[in-house]
Amino acid sequence: MATEKLFQNDAYLKEMHAEVTAVRMHGGRMQIALDRSVFFPEGGGQPADQGFLDGIKVVDVQEDADSGDIWHILEKEGDFKPGQRVCGRIDWDRRFDHMQMHCGEHILSGRFHELFGVENRGFHMGSDYMTIDMAAPEGRPLTDEQIREAEIASNEIIWENLPVRILRCENREDAERLPLRKLADFVEGDVSVVLIGDEESPADCCACCGTHPLQTGSVGLISVLKAETYKGMTRLTIKAGRFALEEYMLRSDAASALAKKYSCELAELIERDKINDVKNEEIRRELAELRSAIAKKEEEKLREALDSGSGTFEAFTYELQSANDLQAMASRLKDSLVAPLALLSERDCTVVIASPGEPDAGKLVGNFAKLFAGKGGGNRQIARAIFQSSEDAKKFIDQLKEELR
Ligand SMILES: [Zn+2]
Predict the structure, then answer these.
(1) What's the Cα-to-Cα distance from 338 to each of 165, 311, 359, 361, rounded to whole Å?
(2) Ligand 1 centre from 212 Cα, in Å?
(3) Which of 73, 118, 249, 371 has a CA-to-CA distance to 325 between 20 and 30 Å?
């Protein structure tokens, strides 16, 4: 037996008494069908209600499209039998969030359609946001200016606090006499049409099975957060109602914290950030120049040390240079070496080995680094070994001194 949809006549109804018409186990959960229900089943992009049925949590609600039964899916089994009277109550905060979001989608879609001839081609409601795929005439992407204009116009519809009415039409032809923005393709038989404002110049008018507030003022706020190109359309991420307010609070807190850091007004924030980027770029360039000058000096010192050295294995320790700096230096020196060389970056606990080719630098690392929990590798002329501590790296170097004596 088809369940009477109490939410269709009164979307503000929160509780009900009803009679159980069927009980079944499905997907490991008990499901209850009722003769009437205040629970909205998932549909038209609006998520299902949740709530309680005789004290047991309702986690999902689904409508059987063939029989019209609305199945209330329970968190755990209860003592339910056909013919029994039960009491149900929906999670109203959750429902109202959905009503605000859903109605926000109507208003925004209506404005885009009226202002720019844009069509809403797809809609998804997430936990606290929605996405709408907007198709503009000739497949042009929406501009930032168009989006801002429609966003402002949508909030003006909220301020006007227009009535939101549900009109029942006996059939598709009746519905088509109304100034519809669109009539879904699948509609057959009875059609519910939501009309926002008056019939002569509606803020929106389209076939819809969802739940809506009584006036647009209840939506509170509509905010477009993101626009991206998607399959030749523009996908908008939007929030409405409580979620839009929470998003603004989050953004306001973040922007205020940054404005405080830069000691500027919110309106100057982006300009200040650009100035900061320029300064950072300058610092990065200066740092690179300094590093390059130091590397040059260190390389000269190392060449001098090698020239006056013993011509056998030697090791040098560097406090500030990175392993990459040392490897670059070793690469430039490797072809002029007469004996292997170890360069230790204390900062990175890494030893770079350079060799004229004999002995094989890669094999030195492969054979001896593991003795001190080191890892690494390389080729005949350049290799590197990474350790947990510079003490371990030094022990590795001592080991090489023994081996290469
Ligand atoms: Zn709707």
Answers:
(1) 91, 6, 11, 13
(2) 6
(3) 371
Domain around 27 = 4-90
Give which of 300, 325, 290, 330 is closest to 314, Cα–Cα.
Answer: 330
200-221 confidence digits (pLDDT tens): 899 999 888 889 999 999 999 9
How much is the pLDDT for 176? 81
Rounded to the nearest angstrom, the distance between the alpha carbon of 149 and the centre of ligand 1 is 22
Are 315 and 220 in the same domain?
A: no
What pLDDT sits at residue 183? 64
Residue 276: inside a domain, yes or no?
Answer: no
Cβ-based neighbours of 140, under 8 Å, separated by 6 or more: none
Of 27, 55, 90, the residue at which a domain comes to its end is 90
Helix axis angle, 269-307 to 241-262, nearest 10°: 50
Answer yes or no: do 243 and 115 share one domain. Answer: yes
Question: Total domain count for the chain?
Answer: 3
Per-residue pLDDT, 184: 61
Whether residues 85 and 100 share a domain: the answer is: no
Please give the radius of gyration of the chain, using alpha carbons only, rounded to the nearest integer.
Answer: 35
Q: What is the pLDDT of residue 185?
A: 57
Same domain, 311 and 234: no
- Tokens for 269? 């924030």
Ligand 1: centre distance to CA 164 (Å) = 10
Whole-number Å distance, alpha carbon 225 to ligand 1 midpoint, is 21
Residue that terminates a domain, selected from 37, 70, 90: 90
Residue 320 lies in a domain: yes
Output the pLDDT for position 137: 87
Going from the Cα of 194 to the center of ligand 1, the distance in angstroms, rounded, reads 6
Q: Is residue 371 part of a domain?
A: yes
- Cα 273 to ligand 1 centre (Å): 42
- Domain of 352, CATH number, reads 3.10.310.40
Taking the centre of ligand 1 as the mean of its atom positions, its distance from the CA of residue 334, in whole angstroms, is 74
Distance 382 CA to ligand 1 centre (A): 68
Question: What residues of the chain score a pLDDT lower than 70?
Answer: 183-188
Question: Is residue 183 a contact partner of residue 120, using CB atoms and an 8 Å limit?
Answer: no
Q: How far is the CA of 216 from the centre of ligand 1 (A)?
A: 12
**Could you tell me the distance, in angstroms and rounded to a whole number, from the CA of residue 341 to the centre of ligand 1?**
75
